Amino acid sequence: METRVIDGRELSNRLREDIKSRVERLKEKGITPGLAVILVGNDPASAVYVCNKEKACNKVGIYSQVIRLDENTSQETLLEYIYGLNADKTIHGILVQLPLPPQIDTNAIINAIDPAKDVDGFHPVNMGRLMIGEDCLEPCTPKGIIRLIQETGQPIAGKHAVVIGRSNIVGKPVALMLLRHNATVTICHSKTVNLKEIARQGDILVVAVGKPNLVDSSFIKPGAIVVDVGINRVDDKLVGDVNFQDACQVAGWITPVPGGVGPMTITMLLENTVLAAERKWVE
Ligand code: GUN
Fold first, then answer.
1. For residue 96, which atom of ligand 1 is closest to its CA?
2. How does pLDDT run across 132-185, given as a tens digit for each residue?
3. What are the backbone angles phi and psi of residue 39, rounded to the nearest 5°?
4. Which are the contacts of 158, defined by CB distance < 8 A and separation ≥ 6?
5. What is the Å distance from ligand 1's center to 29 Cα?
6. Is the dihedral of CA 175, 11, 229, 99 positive or negative?
7. Whose CA is nearest to atom 2 of ligand 1?
8. Which of 65, 116, 194, 195 is the most exposed, having the fewest neighbouring CB atoms within 10 Å of its CB?
9. Global confidence as pTM
10. Are 247 and 226 in contact (CB under 8 A)?
11. DSSP character at residue 187
12. How confident is the model at residue 283 (pLDDT cuts 50, 70, 90)?
């Protein structure tokens, strides 16, 4: 069977058109969705991500405000910025780019963001709502993964989904979201025994570990949907956690790196900002 590549760029472009119309509808009502991004320090990768977020906002008509702070910024100063943005009526979404410098307690910062403006979906209120199946701002990468899987046209309900990786940003939330879509979910991690055998049972296999080429065709059930969340730089090239060429021998569908999950993460950030501005999800 031929492997179909799930094109995250094409899907992103399509979804961004819809986001653009929602922004226009909000503007007709006098509301311009606004996203504030805080970048602390000089991490080059973070600086690139923040620039990409800013550009993407501008393209769909979302107002974006980037606050760049010194590497030595104290936790108190950062908290003051967040309190200011929580109270700012022109800002509907707040994102603090991670990782933060060591003098700052990341959880204290996430906890300070108004959950209604937490477009990353990292606040315990949003995480808790996700856990119990209530409306919430969902984390962007997992949300993008679900959309990519839905793009195959295959139902998620009843499928065995295997997630490799248990991070708070991807593994845990995507497992909860797959469960919400009625998949039977297995979460694997670095201490899992017989990883390959378990992975091979997955009708859906999500790999979010950060290890280049961890997964090859021997981990994949024939015909499975494979979502590669890894973005690893190897010899100046971006590669995923899945050996793409080899996986294509058995997978039914697969997301490429780059051009799979990556573009979807920013698109979901835009969508969450619009959702926060529409405030449809708040009772
Ligand atoms: N750093 C890497 N990924 C992310 C993300 O999704 N959100 C934030 N805030 N920082 C990140």
1. 9
2. 999 999 999 999 999 999 999 999 999 999 999 999 999 999 999 999 999 999
3. -115, 120
4. 182, 183, 184
5. 31
6. negative
7. 98
8. 194
9. 0.96
10. yes
11. E
12. very low
